[in-house]
Amino acid sequence: MSFARQVSQTLDAEHRANIGLLDRLDRALGGGIAEADWPPLANALVRQLEHEVVRHFGFEEDELFPRLADAGDGGIAALLTEEHESIRAVADELLPLARAMGQAALPAGDRTAFKRLTLELIERMVSHIQKETMALLPMLDDLLDDDTDRELAFTYAAE
Hints:
With 159 residues, the chain is an all-alpha fold. It has helices spanning 6-29, 38-70, 74-102, 111-143, 146-158.
């Protein structure tokens, strides 16, 4: 799917990168990775969680969802905000475990929680990204004019 607006294109590119990481994590949790290869993958997860949950979600909630609500599409904004909160809850639990895994310092007793939370994150994020790709991004293409799109793209790039 291709999008006309800079904001939609940027968010779509981030979604695609996130899906790529989630896919690598899913394969790794299925046994497709050597123990020594976990730290770089866990560090990528940490960076993604910090970016996705803080910057990406914050931008959507602060800049995009109010515009959708003002245009009469508050239902989708409310649903996506609920999903953000659900994902944040998992990320809050997962982040310290992922940081420890990234330092090759996750105790064996915490690996079950790491796996469970990572699988839960994968499930929630994939579903969320699909909704945003199929609903939010096309709505933004229709909602934003050239000037607003440019302004929001600059705002997001500066964050």
